[in-house]
Design goal:
- It is built from 5 helices and 6 strands, in the order H-E-E-H-E-H-E-H-E-E-H.
- It is an alpha/beta fold.
- The chain has a single domain (2-158), classed as 3-Layer(aba) Sandwich (Glutaredoxin), CATH 3.40.30.10.
- The protein has a 6-stranded mixed sheet with strand order 1-2-4-3-5-6, with helices on both faces.
- Helix 1 runs parallel beside helix 3 (89-100).
- It is globular and about 60 Å long.
- The N and C termini lie far apart (50 Å).
Length: 160
């Protein structure tokens, strides 16, 4: 019985440490807050508008719907599907990091938040096996690249 308790304790410490690392990865101390009900002044009330910075550049961080995906592809934006789950601590940290730095999403890039628990067809199409996965697709909805974890810095590094 004691080895199980020790293993459970070690795993708990590892998970907590990973959560702290992901939450602070953005360099913004407020990124560890996980209030997903908070919205930024950079988006309109239904999260379908652009996020603009003082230089007039715009990127988007919005909820996925088939119609919104179609619109973003039609407008010629680079589309990244972000498979996220409300119960995932890594997803919560990444969501807050994106919301804190909306103006840093590159112009012409749309990050669409896909509900991991309700998107079996999309998960199957793009080979998604766990939440907190990003998939960039092209105008024909073909896979371009995929990565797991991160925030806007990871987006910029992985974007093709």
């Amino acid at each position: 019985m004691k080895p199980i308790v020790i293993i459970f304790g070690v795993l708990s410490v590892i998970v907590i440490g990973a959560i702290i690392i992901v939450a602070t990865q953005s360099g913004d101390p407020s990124a560890s807050k996980t209030n997903t009900n908070q919205t930024s002044n950079n988006t309109n009330s239904n999260n379908t508008g652009p996020n603009t910075n003082p230089n007039g550049q715009a990127g988007k961080y919005i909820d996925y719907t088939p119609d919104i995906l179609e619109r973003e592809l039609r407008e010629g934006n680079k589309v990244v599907l972000y498979f996220t789950a409300s119960w995932c601590p890594f997803c919560k940290a990444a969501d807050q990091a994106f919301r804190n730095k909306l103006s840093e999403i590159p112009v012409g890039v749309s990050v669409l938040r896909v509900n991991y628990d309700k998107s079996d067809d999309l998960k199957k199409t793009y080979g998604i096996t766990y939440q907190h996965t990003f998939v960039q697709i092209d105008a024909d909805r073909n896979f371009v690249t995929k990565w797991s974890g991160g925030d806007i810095d990871a987006l910029k590094q992985n974007l093709k």
